[in-house]
Amino acid sequence: MGASSDVPALRRGLAVLRLLASRPGPLSAAAVARELALPRSTTYHLLAELAEAGFATHFPEERRYGLGVAAFELGSAYLRHDPLERLARPLLRRLVDSVSRTAHLGVLHGAEALYLLREQPRQPSTIVSDVGVRLPSHLTASGRAMLAHLPDAQVRALFPGVASFVDRTGRGPRNLPALRRLLTAERRRGWAVEDGYVTAGFASVAAPVFDHGERPIAAITVTFRHVCDAECGETWPELADEVRQTADALTERIGGHRT
């Protein structure tokens, strides 16, 4: 281990990397120093070290700095380890053991919800949301749990017209205003509910997982049998509380922050 005096420098270097990663384009050293409240000399030293190690790139004509190839390689290696699934699996298992219902980990893939992980109780029900399955995000509880925390412009881009709103069972939002109303209510409530929107006779409750920038990176969902002739308005708050606790635990595990 290096000297304890190296730790502040490491933290500052990581702060520079995070700042570069959070911006759409390269930054000047002056902008980095201003954003992080660092002395100019310290900022130039950190950027030079990061550039030498390949984690930053200097664009001399622009007098700016961006992420380097090593940062991309590190991110690619991170994804190869399936960290989200590895961190989520034991949490989902505990949730399933507690509620005796099927649980999923899902992410947004364009305008669809993509299921990465599934844990089942000892007597599982047959449902369509298996690992690798993609479903319309506006119909699924997992999809809307994430959509509810995206900027309005991004939601509009994902659903540009009425043709974007797939119908499976005759239930669920069929246009952007209806989706916005639903997302607003679910954001305020803290969880999303799906009652027969995807498969008749099944309902789901979902809560979002957030990354370090308070962006929705995934959702935890519990799905179960529920039959009603029309939407009964049930929101299953007790079940949702357990789902939210699991989602919050995963947020904490990945170093995220809840909005």
TrEMBL record:
Protein's UniProt name: IclR family transcriptional regulator
Domain of life of the native organism: Bacteria
One Pfam family hit: IclR_C
CDD domains: HTH_ARSR (cd00090)
Transmembrane segments: none
InterPro entries: ArsR-like_HTH, GAF-like_dom_sf, HTH_MetabolicPath_Reg, Tscrpt_reg_IclR_C, Tscrpt_reg_IclR_N, WH-like_DNA-bd_sf, WH_DNA-bd_sf
Native species: Saccharothrix mutabilis subsp. mutabilis
PROSITE patterns in alphabetical order: HTH_ICLR (PS51077), ICLR_ED (PS51078)
Coiled-coil intervals, chain numbering: none
Residue ranges of every copy of the HTH iclR-type domain listed in the record: 7-69
Domain IclR-ED span(s) in chain numbering: 70-256
Taxonomic placement: Bacteria, Bacillati, Actinomycetota, Actinomycetes, Pseudonocardiales
